[in-house]
Amino acid sequence: MKIVFxxxxxxxxxxxGAELNDGVLIEYxxxxxxxxxxxxxxxxxxxxxxxxxxxxxxxFVGLKERVKQVIMLKKYIIYxxxxxxxxxxxxxxxxxFKAPETEIxxxxxxEKAEKVIVLSKICKQVIEKNLNLTNVVxxxxxxxxxxxxxxxxxxxxxxxxxxxxxxKSSNPIKGTKEAIQFCNAKNYSYxxxxxxxxxxxxxxxxxxxxxxxxxxVLETLSRVVVEAKMLECKVLTRKNLIGAASEDxxxxxxxxxxxxxxxxxxxxxxxxxxxxxxxxxxxxxxxCYRRPEYLKEQIQxxxxxxxxxxxxxxxxxxxxxxxxxxxxxxxxxxxxxNDFNWKFYGRFTVAMMARTKYIAMFDDDTIPGERWxxxxxxxxxxxNGILVGNGISVTSDRYVGRVLVGWTTQNExxxxxxxxxxxxxxxxxxxxxxxxxxxxxxxxxxxxQFSYCAQKYGNIKTFCPPHxxxxxxxxxxxxxxxxxVDEVASSRTRKHSQFYAQRDACVKNAxxxxxxxxxxxxxxx
Length: 525
Known about the structure:
Helices cover 32% and strands 18% of the residues. By secondary structure, the chain is of the alpha/beta class. It folds into 3 domains: 2-138, Rossmann fold (3-Layer(aba) Sandwich), CATH 3.40.50; 146-254, Rossmann fold; 278-520, Spore Coat Polysaccharide Biosynthesis Protein SpsA, Chain A (Alpha-Beta Complex). Helix 5 links the parallel strand 5 (115-118) and strand 6. It is elongated and about 80 Å long.
């Protein structure tokens, strides 16, 4: 696949944070088998834009408006290095980083992008606040090559012989003047370092105990601050203007931080790759019955996935709680509204109309972490089965007494289970197994029936992907305990005894007709 990579400048033109980031990404894409054509923004013509279908847009100040209109008809992602949605490119001058509407530009260009990929949590929050986007993903890092990180790690052997350093920059937003004033006010003895080559600058910085950096705008990450911390310099800065300070890893330094950046870079590059691979061949099926108030947050969480779905469908079962709601205003691709409550099985019926390889289905109380699809895609390549967010294993011929794994227990590894729900991820073609037998009851137990029939007729097992405690972005559900136990929960709107008696009967029916739960499985199965 060919990708046209657009930027104002590239690493061969000048050495800046954006250009260094882009260089690492371009090299990775080429090594991953993509054909990458680098085009300066001010040279891309209308005719050439028409000829290509896949774009990565880095800095784009030179991009003509007519060309933007063409690109908006194509598949593209924006790799945001500053704040090009604002006329002055600096949200920090506005209260709580919220600019007036008159200062916002390029809004539609950001809205139409497959993904807007930013460098830090604070930048994700700020761009969402200003543009009301649902397609923003934060990679939480800058991109360094292994060669560059190896070089920084080697510099840790250098002894620190000097006290304070300030980078001498002619760019006023980098705050050299302010850093000098700060040191003078504190009577700190400092040296100005640079301008020089990147390697020489890092080598000089490694000799100092402290690095003083006083930016005048909101830095999307601040590559140089992170490099200073990797070199074990104590950083004196305005944390509220440093994107990196919004990240959980910001208190790290030295080799630990270097290793963290290797880990973060690997995950970030996979996000870019996934945008242009077939991993996004997913139809999402949402269900609305009595919780329409959660839909907006749920849809935004799905639009923010590191792997974008092809389409989102909304299946609406009738209830007076959703009567009068204009579902066309939600950010979904298809709405299937019913004048009848088809209960749990209806959404599994409409899912058979999807033409994607995968189906991702969610209960109405389930808000996934932004890497849930990525987690599922990585899991299904190894454990080719129905994936669930709340995994359940039965311990007898009843549902009562079950064992749970998933978001409720936060399992570190993939675990085979008997059934599950809250969130499903599976191959669309497996849906046919669900309908090879008439459901025992349409009132309950669709999760039991699906896993039972898939095992019986397709030898398809059910698994719960990892839900690591330290990484909720991989989780299937972030607010299950908050949203799933309200007064409209299906387990509460019916008597507990009735609800669980029905599920007990569904399990017994499945076992009687050939389902083999894990606790009954023989070696030959």
